[in-house]
Amino acid sequence: MSTLGAVLAAKNLDSPDEVRDFAHGHMDIVQVAGRTVGRMVFEPGWRWSVHMRPTAGTDSCRVLHTGAVLSGRLAVRMDDGTEAVAGPGDVFVIEPGHDGWVLGDEPCVLLDFTGAGGYARH
After folding, report:
1. Is the per-residue pLDDT at 118 higher than 90?
2. C-alpha 77: how far from its chain's center?
3. How far is CA 110 from CA 28, 63, 80, 90, in A?
4. Domain spanning 18-112: which CATH class is it, in words?
């Protein structure tokens, strides 16, 4: 009989392993226990369909995002037209096939636990 060992690992996002810059924002990335976690910072005026589409080469974001909003507000429109807004303290799952944009004049800062690995790669 085998026993699985416990894993306890921590890294601080203020000392990221990688920083990915993109128009009107950036993402701080840490690799911890074989997983990728990103802190995304979207500045006011950022919109996926304007600022990320040219890099992604798709009509909408094709990445699954699972995370939490720390500050600011993010609006999302799915390809089927469904819309939602996430704000501070909200936990979200955003399936592939969406556009997103910052609402208001405050940056939107969020943690992404599933979509950071391939996001904003040039």
Report:
1. no
2. 15
3. 11, 15, 24, 10
4. mainly beta
DSSP the chain: ---PPP------TTS-SEEEEETTEEEEEEEETTEEEEEEEE-TT-BHHHHTHHHH-SSSB---EEEEEEESEEEEEETTS-EEEE-TT-EEEE-SSEEEEEESSS-EEEEESSSTTTTT--
Question: Which pLDDT score, from 0 to 100, does residue 4 have?
Answer: 62
What whole-number distance in Å separates Cα of residue 114 and Cα of residue 28? Answer: 14
Tokens of 69: 């909003």
When pLDDT is cut at 50, 70 and 90, the band that residue 16 belongs to is very high
Q: Write down the pTM of the prediction.
A: 0.90
User: From residue 14, how far is each of 17, 46, 62 by CA, in Å?
Assistant: 10, 22, 27
- Check pLDDT > 90 for residue 31: yes
User: For residue 42, what are the contacts with CB-CB under 8 A and spacing of at least 6?
Assistant: 24, 25, 72, 74, 102, 107, 108, 109, 110
pLDDT at 1 over 70: no
Q: What are the backbone dihedrals phi and psi of residue 116, each rounded to the nearest 5 degrees, phi first?
A: -75, -30
